[in-house]
Amino acid sequence: MKYAIYCGSSAGSDPQFLQATQALAAEICQRKHSIVYGGASVGLMGAVADAVLTGGQRVTGVMPKALIDKELQHQGLSELHIVEDMQQRKAKMAELADAYIAMPGGVGTLEEIFEVWTAGQLGFHAKPCAFYNVDGYYDELIAFAQTMVKKQFMKGLYLDKLIVSDDPQTLLTQIAEYQAPASKWG
Predict the structure, then answer these.
(1) Is 79 helix (H, G, I), strand (E, B) or coil?
(2) For residues 99 and 161, what is the distance between their CA atoms, to the nearest angstrom?
(3) Distance between CA 139 and CA 149 in Å, rounded?
(4) 37-69: per-residue pLDDT in tens?
(5) Which of 36, 33, 62 is nearest to 49 (CA)?
(6) Domain 2-175: assigned CATH number
(7) CA angle (128 as vertex; 8, 135 as ends), nearest 5
(8) CA distance linking residue 22 with residue 12, whole number of Å
(9) How far apart, in whole angstroms, are the C-alpha atoms of residue 89 and residue 86?
(10) Has this prediction a pTM greater than 0.90?
(11) Residue 49's closest CA among 84, 5, 14?
(12) DSSP H helical segments within 4-106, as ranges?
């Protein structure tokens, strides 16, 4: 299995984010799985790539030309796809992945996971979407999604099928057992 990992180009404010990243990478390696991510060597992005590579598994990067120098392209990847822009980056990552995981990150992380989550709801893919909820990082976002369900802007089954866990083993096990809901218009 290949996971698309969406996460911060920063390491965040607390060492637990880096520790949790390393724990997730260790679980990915234990299962002999691989990742595709944004291709950078900095922040949680670099940390997850380094840990998966150190664990002996493949890491594929996807980076727009304009960010090669700005984001400090990782030099040790198994494979690197250079694309024209962010839209192509997201499309390539979505194409290469079997599942999508949002680790802690900023608005770019949210944009990426929201796009694939929406595509799943619309039936464009049947792949699992997950939030690695380190230290409750996504609690308020999940609470807001519950508000969307309550106010009938989203069906509850799309929230119910979203995988949310702070435990790497649970997260990856739930991804492996995932059954996609019917598409919104199906």
Answers:
(1) strand
(2) 13
(3) 15
(4) 999 999 999 999 999 999 999 999 999 998 886
(5) 36
(6) 3.40.50.450
(7) 45
(8) 14
(9) 5
(10) yes
(11) 5
(12) 15-30, 43-54, 86-96
